[in-house]
UniProtKB/TrEMBL annotation:
<feature type="region of interest" description="Disordered">
    <location>
        <begin position="197"/>
        <end position="216"/>
    </location>
</feature>
<keyword id="KW-0732">Signal</keyword>
<dbReference type="Pfam" id="PF06035">
    <property type="entry name" value="Peptidase_C93"/>
</dbReference>
<feature type="signal peptide">
    <location>
        <begin position="1"/>
        <end position="18"/>
    </location>
</feature>
<dbReference type="InterPro" id="IPR010319">
    <property type="entry name" value="Transglutaminase-like_Cys_pept"/>
</dbReference>
<protein>
    <submittedName>
        <fullName>Transglutaminase family protein cysteine peptidase BTLCP</fullName>
    </submittedName>
</protein>
Length: 216
């Protein structure tokens, strides 16, 4: 089921991106985003621990230290990342875990096409891993948004800085452009979490053109 769903997601992403190419051209590419500075060990999220301890999902949390720590971005790869972000956002119905699962926090891959923030992020990572990107360079990240407070996004650690894939926007943003406070993220060295020091960012303003643009 997940394979056919993934194919549908990618097709949706391709369709969603076509107007962007027409409207904004094909020459947009992100400037350097800067990088977050992880600190020491941070407490794990309980629902993440339950997700990772499941035999079915354990591979989604595995850390292979032989993988690169950073993704080397190219225009074509940027295009694919934007496509996956848009495709997943268009394919999943946003619903809280309380309404969906009857529990406060449950992590999964949105196999029934319903989920909340972390489910979107996990599915995006799965699709990008399937496209050959190193899981080690894509970290689940806990942020505070100043409204609902707790929120989860996927951070891509790249040679051009750290970029965020978020179910609240189709635009792939540099971390400092999101308006979030960065609390912690998965470690790149072991199965666990590291602190991001509650690093704040300026409130999100107008989205830069490169955030959702198509690159050749």
């Amino acid at each position: 089921m997940i394979r056919s769903f993934a194919t549908a997601v990618l097709l949706l992403g391709t369709v969603a991106l076509a107007p962007v190419a027409d409207a904004r051209g094909r020459d947009r590419y992100p400037p350097s985003a800067g990088s977050l500075s992880p600190g020491g060990e941070a407490p794990s999220i309980k629902a993440w621990s339950e997700f990772c301890s499941s035999g079915f999902y354990a591979r989604e949390c595995a850390v292979d230290r032989s993988e690169p720590q950073r993704i080397v971005l190219t225009p074509a790869l940027w295009r694919h990342i934007v496509s996956v972000n848009r495709g997943v956002n268009a394919s999943i119905a946003s619903v809280s875990d309380e309404d969906h699962r009857g529990r406060r926090d449950v992590w999964d891959l949105a196999e029934d096409r319903k989920g909340d923030c972390e489910d979107y992020a996990l599915l995006k990572r799965k699709l990008l891993v399937g496209a050959g990107l190193p899981r080690r360079a894509m970290r689940m990240t806990a942020v505070a948004d100043g409204v609902d407070m707790g929120h989860a996004v996927l951070t891509l650690i790249t040679d051009r800085g750290d970029f965020v894939l978020d179910n609240r926007t189709d635009e792939v943003m540099g971390w400092a452009d999101t308006g979030y406070t960065f609390v912690k993220r998965e470690s790149q060295d072991e199965v666990g979490w590291v602190s991001l020091g509650n690093t704040p960012t300026a409130p999100a303003g107008p989205r830069p053109a490169w955030a959702s643009a198509i690159a050749p």
